[in-house]
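Sanity check

After download, print the first record. It should look like this:
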Amino acid sequence: MIDSWENFKIEIEEFIPQNQKVYVRWKQTGMHIGEYEGYLPTNKEVVELGSAVYRLENQKIVEYWIQVDRFGSIEQIKKNQEQD
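Expected structure tokens:
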């Protein structure tokens, strides 16, 4: 999946530590240069949003839950394809 994006950057938008858990929300921006979820490359920018909760023990990640808005990414790709 990483081959689908070029020059992507990740921006941490929110970082909240609480007891043994840390919540992180991010925005990833990159050029869609390879097949993604069956969609051919558009060579246009796509923004993907995601978040995670990490559970820590002894200052190490021992468990995590990640959510990524793939539906939003696919909608952007579809829109980019329609514009061509």
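If your output differs, re-run the checksum step. Summary of this record's structure: The longest strand covers residues 5-18.
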